[in-house]
Amino acid sequence: MIAAMTSTSWQDRVGTAGNAPLRWIAGWGRIVFFGASLLVLALSPATYSPETRRALLHHIYVDTAPVLAWFTTLAAFLTLVITRIVVVTALSYGLSQYALEMVIRVLVLELIPLTAALFIALRCTIPNGAAVAAMRRSGHFDALARAGRDPVVTQALPRALAGIYATVTLAALSCVVALVLAYLAVYGFTTAGIPSYTRVFGHVFTPAVSLVFVLKTLLFSLAVAIIPMASGLYDTEGDGSRESAALQGLVRMFAVLLVLEALSLAGNYY
Amino acid sequence: MADPVETLARSEPSPTAPVRHLERKAALLLAFTTFLVAGSVLFLLHSRGAFEPTQQLVLVADDAEGVAIGMDMTFSGFPIGRVHTVELAEGGGKVHIVIDVPTKDAHWLRSSSVFTLVRGLVGGTTIKAYTGVPADPPLAAGAERPVLRGDATAELPQVLSNAKDVLANAAAITAQDGELRATLANLRELSERLKGRDADKVAAALDRANALLARLDGMTAKADAQVFGPDGVMKEARATVVQLNQLLADARTSLKKVDAVLTDAQGISANVRGATTDLGALRAEVDANLHKIEGMIDQLNRRWPFARDTEVKLP
Fold this sequence. Notes:
The structure holds two protein chains of two kinds.
Chain A: H1 2-6, H2 10-17, H3 20-43, H4 50-92, H5 99-137, H6 140-146, H7 151-187, H8 194-204, H9 207-233, H10 242-269
Chain B: H1 4-11, H2 22-47, E1 54-61, E2 72-75, E3 78-88, E4 95-102, E5 114-119, E6 125-130, E7 143-151, H3 156-173, H4 179-195, H5 197-228, H6 233-303
Parallel strand pairs in B: 1-7, 2-6, 5-7
Antiparallel strand pairs in B: 1-4, 2-3, 3-4, 5-6
């Protein structure tokens, strides 16, 4: 698998032969190809050998559990501050009936999925990609391949899937925490506002907006999980150092996140 | 060269050391995520009214501008329905606004309910329901009702037209040959005339008024001396008052005397009353004597029947 994905692909031939734009296209082609390969591997039951399953569980746990509490605290603080700003501003303009809707839109729809993706990228997936690059460069991958174990399946896939899972979990938990805190910040400790709050929530999350939200979160998680890993596996550009691979992954990942955010905004508001 | 495995251990977010009870912890984490996502989906469906039995209400409007799918229909400020679809009706150019009303809220709507579609200057379009007679039969499911349209912006052209008229009037008034300008010109002419020829007359009138006031002042001083001066009227008036007091004292003495006279008169009148009583007794006696004399004459007449003149002359 690793041989098919690294040595003789068209992207390598274009990347080494062409000039800068061609190398740029080849780099993106490698990322897309690697992402598609990972998805195919993830959907194939034969991939989940005991070793891969153990590695997957390990990465899922160590990538998600330690950051869950910290990130939830951060999201709660962000929610309180932004809710306060929006509610006070809306009140001063006499538009308090739109404050809650705006809080839900700004926080749950836009800010929290992006923040969760960036947090997971900086905390887990970029270091994971750098580790994969180091493994490959140190010959660990070759050793694994010689031992009959596919390094992509046993090393890269668990890390990528753990990144996807961590992003989705963090986004879901932070959205729930943000919704609860926004309710408490607006209505206080009472259950009287639940029906109207539920209605506002349903008003914001129309089927189209819900679809865009789900797609955006999934694509964010894919972007932060796959791009750094692909950069770690194919760091043929630059001087080949680990820092260069990490930087390339970061730049490409930020670009993709920006495009996805712009597309989601266009989908929600146009 | 450093050991690659050691390098990996330092670069990854957490060491690759084995985690105790990894499978159980990972399963708990997966269950937590599943619970979160499933709960969110269920809450979303609940908030969209997916688990609520609804009945439909079709509002017929001329224009559905501003009506969006999912917007609320309110009753007394409470949302009791949600726009399901907006579609053009077959023929007639009308619009059908299909509204999902939860069955638990449907009892607010009656057959006589009125529906309005109001488009405000600020904020979105609102659909409102009004029920005047709560005792009317409830609105049937799938009922079609006309919706009354109110558009705050629709009055803007009329307001602008009126404003234009007002501005035109103002322009006509202040025009070069306008009435206001003519009035101002007349006023200016009058003030200039006052300033020129007639100003002397006004000054003379003021001088004469001043002289008149000075004379009035002198007259007042003289009147003051005559009334309140050492030989003034006030002193004589005071002496007159003293004399009047003396006169009043004399009058009081006279009145006392008159009182005494009256007391005597009362005594006299009491005597007279007693005499009058005596006169009554005297008369009674005279009457008795007369009766007796009459009886005697009657007897004489009977004894002296030949007498022609039977009349007795009383002394």
